[in-house]
Structure formats: structure tokens, C-alpha cells
Design brief:
With about 325 residues, this protein is of the alpha/beta class. It folds into three domains: about 1-75, Multidrug-efflux Transporter Regulator, Chain: A, Domain 2 (Orthogonal Bundle); about 90-220, Rossmann fold (3-Layer(aba) Sandwich), CATH 3.40.50; about 240-325. It contains 15 helices and eight strands. Helix 3 packs parallel to helix 5 (about 75-90). The protein is elongated and about 75 Å long. It starts with 9 loop residues before the first strand and ends in a 9-residue tail after the last helix. About 35% of the residues are buried. Residues about 95-100 and about 220-235 have low confidence and may be disordered.
Length: about 325
Amino acid sequence: MSFDSSEPLYRIGVVSKTTGIPVSTLRIWETRYAAFSPLKTTGKQRLYGELDVSKALLLKQLSQAGHAISAIAPLGLASLRQMSSQSHQAQTHIMATEQAVSMAVVGLALANRMESPQMAMRLAQNHIQVNDVWKDLAAASDALVQTPPQVLLIQVNSLNAQVDTAIRTLVRQQKVAQTIVIYHFAADAVVQAMKLAGLMVRRAPISDAELAELLQSVLFVDPVRAQEFGTTGPVITSRKYSEATLSRVAGISTSVLCECPRHVAELISQLASFEDYSQDCLNQSPEDAHLHAYLTSIAGSARTLFENALEKVAAHEGIDLREGKL
């Protein structure tokens, strides 16, 4: 196993706590089955990288699903992840009206958090399957994905105009319904521009509880609502229309006496603003996190419904909703 010099390294006790795998088991998987090749200090302390943590989590999932560790230990991450996805589909019993939410993650550390036992407990009532994991945006942009993820979860150190462009390009390429970006440093102008583009943006550090609430805020709790809102899965879609487009539609004079285009466009704008407000409130206090996640979900659901309504009104009135049209 090769390590990036900038990659954090973890002692075996930390890996054990993160993955829920006993230290003795990790040692057996290494010595008997060559599952890992950790670095060792001069004092013979094992040091594991993020890729090792990812593999440990996948080996645990697959061994619990009945796969022999001797057969899966030599496999690479891509093969293990594919087996995990197939195993998840075979073993998860979901009601016919429900669907598992497919997710892709950019950032190994973030992916390991998503697949950790601690996060699994927090998201126990949500059917989420991580199908794709990429080390960084460059790797994600070069990847060939058979099934586009419904949710794209990204972790970056710094947000700037170039990174913003790369993320938006990836979202368009993969046709993602909802994107969540976690960052450490960014200019306010970039963050606001990304929010207006429909991306959910949060500053690190973010706890597992806050991350779980943020994810739940974009998931439909009731699968019937997904059908009502015209979505293809249990995910609240990101914004379809910018403020500029909504303002343009609101200012158009039409033959509809009740001025439906203006009212609908204004409602969408107000709901989107409240959605952003509730999202920003998520980390203000642990006690309020669940309430704000619920409010974000409700606002996003209503916004999606009125966006569908705006499309019908625009089609009736001959209004072009494409960005930049007059």
C-alpha cells in the first residue's frame, strides 16, 4: 500500500474505533490474509491510511454478509465496493414504494465517515448506498459511472472559482439531484454563488450528528411525497431556477389575469430563501438540528412542487425558462 505524504495516518487503535473492528481481528486480517500493508514506525507501531480504513470497512460489511475473509481480503477497493453494492441490493428488504438513495462521495476521509458504524446508526432509517468513492474532484471528473448518483457528497479544503466550476461541471455530467459540499476555507462570494446555484454548502468541521441531519434534510421521509412532487427517487432535488430567472419571470406581463407566473416565481424564491435559512441554522445548536433539518426538507419539498407548477404555467403562457433568456 502506497501513501501520499500529505495523507493522515492512523494507529491501529484509531482504525479499530472508527470501523468497529477489534484490534486483534485487524492484525489477523493483515498477517494471515495480507489484507493490509501498513507502514510501521521504528517502534513497530502500525500506521494505516484512509485507503486501509476504506478497505477495512468494506471487508467488515462483506464478511458479515457471509463472504469468506480469505476470499475477499486480496481484492482491491473497486472490486470490494462492487460486491458491497450487490450484497446491499440482495440483502436489504425495502418496501416496493421505497427506493435506496444512491450516493457518490468525493474525499476518502468523508467516505469512510459515511460508511462507519457510527454513521450507519444515525442513518438507520434511511436507505443510503455509497456506490462510488473518488479521492478528489480530478478523479471524479475522469470516472465512468454506470448509474448517476442521486446525492453527491464532496469534501474540499478550499473553495474558489476554479473549484466551484469543477464541482458544477461534475454535477452536470453526473446529472445529480442534490449536491452537498463541505469545505474548510472559502470566500463568501463563492459560497453564496454556489448556494444560489442550488448546492448545499457547509463549513467544516461538521460533526457526524450534523452531517446526518444535513443528509436527512434532502431525503423524503414519506415516499408518497416523492410521487406527488414528480421526482424519480426519495431525494429533494436542488434548485432548478436562479434568482435572475425567477425575477425575469415575475416581471413578465401575461394574459393570465391572476398573474400566476409572478406569484409562483415569487413563492419559489421565498421558499428557496427559507430553505437556505433553515440549512444555515443546522449547526447552531444540537437541540435544534433535527427541527431545522425537517424545516429544510419541507421547504425543499414545497419548492420542488412549485417549480413543477411554474413549468406548467410557463408552457401555458409560452415563457422560456432557460437561463439567460429574455
